[in-house]
Design brief:
Number of domains: 1
Order of helices and strands: HH
Helix content: over 70%
Structural class: mainly alpha
Strand content: under 5%
Largest sheet: none
Distance between the termini: 18 Å
Radius of gyration: 13 Å
Length: 54
């Protein structure tokens, strides 16, 4: 498991997910937020791997 500082994009995506869950947003919105969190996390892990290889 890689340990790296959590990028701002990941934090923002997680915050938006919590905001929408708290506001009881429609399921489509929640699903999109979950996808945003996963995408941001994947991109951050990819960048961390690239930095590690360099």
């Amino acid at each position: 498991m890689l340990i790296y500082p959590i990028p701002v994009a990941v934090t923002q995506a997680r915050v938006q997910l919590v905001v929408d869950q708290t506001a009881k947003a429609p399921p489509d919105t929640i699903n999109n937020d979950v996808l945003e969190v996963l995408t941001a996390t994947d991109e951050a892990e990819h960048e961390a791997l690239l930095d590690r290889k360099a």
